[in-house]
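Give me the fold.
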Amino acid sequence: MNFLPDKPIIIRSNFLTKAVSWFFEVYAITLYPFVVMKEHEESEDMTIGQRYQAQLKDQRTIHHETIHMRQYKELWVLPLVFLYLWDWTIGLFKYRDAQKAYYRIRVEQEAYANQDKFQFYFDGKRHGKAYDKCYADTREPFAWKKYKV
């Protein structure tokens, strides 16, 4: 039985996201069991469309990071960190570009490919595609294995 938590503990911090932005700007990062995200971008003077886009971006990011939480549960923390660094290192040698290497990490490919597959509610109404369940809740174990660096 796996006792690791399913849901991330969200920490909002522009300082911390900037501190881990070594090669390119980071909006969020999962440091199990925490997800460190930039501070919420919504303000009172935003239009409804701007509020919608800000909330959608936040929910998409949280879903992306929740997929990583499920990956952590499969592999545990240190093996996932090792796999992540291994894939990134292979990508650096293969593509000679830090950002492209990041996008070719297998666990990132799975998360990006499925980050929009969730139920999004705005002002009490469901928006977007009608997903009965979020991808993170229904994904096959070790789904990241089908991707290649």
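The chain is about 50% helix and 10% strand.
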